[in-house]
Design brief:
The complex is a heterodimer. The relative contact order of chain A is 0.19. In chain A, the strands form two sheets. A five-stranded antiparallel sheet of chain A has the order 6-5-4-7-8, covered by helices on one side. Chain A has a three-stranded antiparallel sheet with strand order 2-1-3. In chain A, strand 7 and strand 8 form a beta hairpin. By secondary structure, chain A is mainly beta. Chain A is 6% helix and 38% strand. Chain A is built from one helix and eight strands; from the N terminus they run αββββββββ. Chain B has a domain of 132 residues: 3-Layer(aba) Sandwich (Peroxisomal Thiolase, Chain A, domain 1). In chain B, 38% of the residues lie in helices and 18% in strands. In chain B, strands 3-2-4-7-1-8-11-10-9 form a nine-stranded mixed sheet, with helices on both faces. In chain B, strands 5-6 form a two-stranded antiparallel ribbon. Classes of the chains: A mainly beta, B alpha/beta. Chains A and B meet through strand 4, strand 5 and strand 6 of A and helix 5, helix 6 and strand 5 of B.
Chain lengths: 138, 394
């Protein structure tokens, strides 16, 4: 029985590449619409609010609160088993964006709802994934 | 959409089991022939075939999409065949398409069916499929998420906000399995019903989901024959009439799903479908909820106003939704009780809805079953479709 063990990298679109370029410089970029001022996540080809193509990017503060989380102990894909246990969360950025991420640099039992977290970047095959850790933790 | 234009007049089903020796076509023959016989029609009366697309089974999906079923079963009167795919919401859409065919005069009688054989799919393919289906490959999959984790994220937040306890959550499994133990088509037919303590003692997969709160994959299939409500009435046979249908779209990507919008969607679709049917919530005899995981049941029982806000878990723990309880609920035990047949769980739920309204549910028969709420959702929960079915049409 052979399992695919290569960890995934983002399946990008041309309009999301800027986001991933930003992460290489430790910047968490958010797409914004110059016309209707919407903050857009995930990045789109056109603004999902007004269909404008007049889009720009701003750098997020990287600060967020945990909306919800789940810590995995087993039954994940074999390619991720070496990382168990790990915690996946939805975090709400100060800019009003919700992202899926990993919570790292703390014990699973110390993670709580509405906990303040900050972004860090985790390298995987040339991409840098936004992870979050408790604020002030180095 | 429409009120009282179609009815299910025949059903067929095979037990959900892991039986690789039973081929896709074995199940298709057995379920479709049983449904046609149950309807009282002749095979050549079937003028349309709609397949609920089997997930992660490209060979049979292609054969069905490209019209093999009418030829294989010798349906000489068949005018068209098609497959429908909206994940777990496929069956609802197959029924809607059947409604369009019947009401437009394209077909007088339509088979809607489903088949799945998980036991013949190589394990690595199965794991990979369920890791990626309904999960965004750029913004979610990277982090090592799974269907179980998506449910865990939702359940953890619900428990935090509502105060629902782990014991109350675990009692949902006990409730669903109590129905399954009485269902000859269930994976768990005749098996012991796990206690709350036993559920909580099983391994933690991901918080708050224990192993016994997850699903066992199985093989299975079922079929139903749909005709116009008028024809069903004239045939003077037991039937299930479609009386209401409402839907809301939430999001394709899990993280984009606004929990408040989902809650509102469940509330509104139930109200709209019930209003279309011309009944009230109190007229519903059976809440046949298809939610795939036990963790969503307490929350949805509150959204449907079957349990007061914050009391869903308590109701389950008190056994009110269990076999013998005072609130008939998911009488095949949803996916945790039936065994998970991919997009087929919702098909099995629709067949159960018809079975209950036809008075053919045996030990699980809900007394005086007149109206059933039947819902379905697709992907990792991109939508909710609420329907109301009745024993008769006014």
């Amino acid at each position: 029985m052979e399992f695919e063990m290569t960890k995934p990298i983002p399946e990008t679109q041309p309009w999301s590449e800027k986001f991933w370029e930003g992460t290489k410089q430790c910047k968490l970029l958010i797409q914004v619409c110059r016309d209707c001022k919407s903050k857009i996540f995930y990045p789109r080809k056109f603004c999902p609010e007004c269909w404008s193509g007049n889009l720009d990017w701003i750098e997020a503060s990287g600060k967020a609160k945990i909306f919800t989380f789940s810590t995995a102990y087993s039954m994940v894909e074999p390619k991720f088993m070496d990382e168990l246990p790990y915690t996946i969360a939805y975090v709400d950025l100060e800019e009003g964006i919700r992202m899926m991420t990993r919570i790292v640099d703390c014990k699973p039992e110390d993670i709580s709802f509405d906990m303040n977290v900050e972004v860090l970047f985790h390298e995987r095959n040339g991409y840098f994934l936004p992870y979050f850790r408790p604020t002030g933790k180095k | 959409m429409s009120k009282g234009k179609i009815a299910i007049i025949g059903i067929g089903e095979v037990p959900t089991r892991n039986m690789p020796e039973r081929t896709h076509w074995d199940i298709i023959y057995d379920t479709c022939m049983e449904a046609v016989r149950d309807s009282g029609l002749h095979k050549n009366d079937i003028e349309g075939v709609i397949s609920v697309t089997p997930q992660a089974q490209p060979k049979i999906a292609a054969e069905l999409s490209f019209g093999k079923l009418p030829e294989e079963l010798g349906l000489k009167g068949c005018k068209d065949a098609v497959s429908v795919n909206a994940g777990g919401a496929s069956t609802s859409n197959a029924v809607r398409l059947a409604e369009q065919w019947v009401t437009s005069g394209l077909a007088k009688a339509v088979i809607v069916h489903h088949v799945t054989l998980h036991s013949t799919i190589p394990v690595p393919d199965l794991i990979n499929f369920f890791a990626k289906a309904g999960v965004d490959l750029q913004w979610e999959y990277l982090y090592g998420t799974t269907y179980n984790i998506i449910m865990g994220l939702m359940a953890n937040r619900y428990m935090y906000e509502s105060g629902c306890t782990p014991e109350q959550m675990a009692s949902v499994v006990t409730a669903l399995r109590s129905w399954a133990a009485k269902d000859p088509n269930s994976f768990f037919y005749g098996k012991d019903v796990p206690s709350v303590e036993k559920v909580l003692a099983s391994d933690m997969l991901n918080t708050p989901l224990h192993k016994r709160e997850s699903n066992v994959l199985g093989d299975g299939g079922c079929a139903m024959v749909i005709v116009s409500a008028e024809d069903a009435k004239n045939m003077k046979r037991p039937a299930a009439y479609k009386l209401g249908d409402s839907v809301r779209y939430f999001s394709g990507t899990c993280v984009m799903r606004d929990f408040n919008k989902v809650a509102e969607g469940f509330r509104v679709t139930a109200k709209e479908a019930i209003a279309q049917a011309g009944i009230t919530k109190d007229d519903v005899s059976l809440w046949n909820c298809y939610l795939a995981y036990p963790l969503a049941h307490p929350m949805v029982s509150e959204l449907l106003e079957v349990a007061p806000a914050g009391m869903g878990g308590k109701y389950f723990l008190e056994g009110r939704m269990s076999f013998g309880g005072d609130i008939p609920w998911s009488t095949i035990g949803d996916a945790p009780g039936r065994g998970h047949t991919g997009s087929g769980v919702s098909s099995a739920c629709y067949v159960e809805t018809a079975r209950q309204l036809m008075g053919k549910a045996g030990e699980r028969q809900v007394k005086n079953c007149k109206y059933v709420y039947q819902n379905a959702g697709g992907g990792s929960g991109f939508n909710n479709i609420a329907t109301i079915w009745g024993k008769e049409i006014k």
